[in-house]
Design a protein that fits this description.
- There is one protein chain.
- The protein is globular and about 30 Å long.
- Strands 2-1-3-4-5 form a 5-stranded parallel β-sheet, sandwiched between helices.
- Helices cover about 40% and strands about 20% of the residues.
- Helix 2 packs parallel to helix 3.
- It starts with a strand and ends with a helix.
- The chain is α/β, with parallel strands linked by helices and about 120 residues long.
- It has a single domain, classed as Response regulator (Rossmann fold, 3-Layer(aba) Sandwich).
- Helix 1 links the parallel strand 1 and strand 2.
Length: about 120
């Protein structure tokens, strides 16, 4: 069964890059351009994993992550942070992997494979 990845990032070029990379690797993808849109897609699409930018307009990555973890139905969905923003926010657990921009595609794919088990 094909795994579905929700890509949340406000940069259309990054979203397109991640979509192409992940689809070429055999994943289905769903996209959102901010945390609010991501929460809508979360409930309608039931992704197996989420790539999450931290610095976005409207509802940013930290608020999205906090909301995700509070909901029993979504708290166990693996998250990989893909962001150019500084240190890990305190709200994000140390067990959540961080891939910094510019994106190292090999590191990202290895991280996704590990997170999906």
């Amino acid at each position: 069964m094909t795994k579905k990845i929700l890509i949340i990032d406000d940069d259309p070029a990054i979203v397109e890059f991640l979509e192409d990379l992940l689809q070429d690797a055999g994943f289905a993808t769903v996209t959102a351009f901010n945390g609010g849109e991501g929460l809508d897609k979360l409930t309608s699409e039931s992704p197996d994993l989420i790539t999450l930018d931290m610095d976005m307009p409207e509802k940013g990555g930290v608020l999205f992550y906090a909301t995700l973890r509070k909901d029993e139905a979504t708290r166990d969905i693996p998250v990989v942070i893909v962001s150019g923003v500084g240190p890990r926010p305190p709200a994000v657990g140390k067990d959540v992997p961080v891939i910094t921009k510019p994106i190292d595609t090999d590191a990202l794919m290895a991280c996704i494979t590990t997170q999906l088990g």
